[in-house]
Design a protein that fits this description.
Length: about 300
């Protein structure tokens, strides 16, 4: 089995690169970079890198009406709204804790998948998601960093992130254009998001907001590389794993964000947070076994 056909490998790659977004976003916030501008950088930078790869490979990106509609809906649900929320709550909740909120996405996605009967996981897969959810609840109850308690309004704002992602996960599978390749969908949705975020930045940020990116050139470059790497495998994971399995990238991302935040950014979390993270890892393990069972039975 090649990398592009392995749901497990794609899950860890996508989640790992996604996890870097949270500590990088915190550093950008500390450098006074506008959240909207940073979200724009993620979509524009990652999208442009993938577009360049697509063009030198002799391929194009379709602009058929059904494709354009797909790009726009996904850009709002999966990129614009979540990213704006992420970079606004990170200063309040910490990068690691914000990453943990992503672990609620599988629960919301599973609920919507059940309602709409879209590529449901087997019983063991549901158990894995439930175990991961218990871990996420343990972490959520700690309410952020030890030295940075926050009000419930920021928790509610953070919970809007996984709900928006869940809607995007289901839409991505249900409306996948016939014959579409995963890379062109990644490019189209990111470029659509970049356009929307650019307009929003012009309205809500000062004219110098984009120029401030020059003060964090190395950080911006790392973010662009991480974004391009993540989006290059994200839509392929959707194809081979389905919406509920893909939603578990939040579990991987949460672990990466916690460790990076602790090791490199000086963030401190309680023992309950770390115990919850261990429970989440157990949920990932169960889900991986369930995915292997489904592949064998197919």
């Amino acid at each position: 089995m090649t990398l592009k056909d392995s749901p497990v490998a794609l899950l860890f790659l996508t989640g790992g690169f996604l996890g870097l977004t949270f500590p990088l976003g915190k550093l950008a916030g500390e450098a006074s970079i506008s959240p909207i501008v940073w979200a724009w950088l993620i979509s524009a930078g990652g999208g442009c890198v993938l577009l360049f790869i697509q063009l030198i490979s002799g391929k194009s990106v379709s602009l058929r009406p059904d494709y354009v509609r797909y790009y726009l809906v996904l850009s709002v649900c999966s990129l614009v709204l979540p990213n704006i929320l992420i970079f606004n709550v990170i200063p309040k909740l910490g990068s690691g804790f914000t990453g943990i909120l992503f672990t609620l996405s599988p629960v919301f996605t599973l609920t919507l998948s059940s309602l709409w009967q879209v590529r449901m996981p087997n019983l063991l897969g549901c158990i894995g998601i439930a175990v991961g959810f218990i871990g996420a609840i343990l972490v959520t109850l700690t309410r952020g960093e030890m030295n940075q308690p926050v009000g419930m309004i920021w928790i509610v704002a953070g919970l809007c992130i996984p709900m928006s992602l869940a809607i995007g996960n289901l839409y991505r599978t249900m409306s996948w254009p016939e014959g579409a390749q995963h890379l062109e969908l990644a490019i189209g949705s990111n470029m659509a998001a970049a356009i929307l975020l650019f307009i929003m930045a012009l309205v809500y940020s000062p004219p110098s907001a984009f120029h401030e990116l020059l003060s964090v050139k190395k950080l911006a470059l790392v973010q662009i590389i991480a974004s391009a790497a993540m989006f290059s495998v994200f839509f392929r994971l959707q194809q081979v794993g389905g919406p509920t399995y893909l939603s578990q990238i939040g579990y991987i991302a949460a672990g990466v964000a916690l460790f990076v935040g602790t090791l490199f950014l000086g963030e401190r979390y309680s023992i309950v947070t770390w115990f919850g993270a261990v429970v989440i890892v157990a949920g990932i393990g169960i889900s991986v076994v369930a995915q292997q069972q489904q592949k064998s039975a197919a």
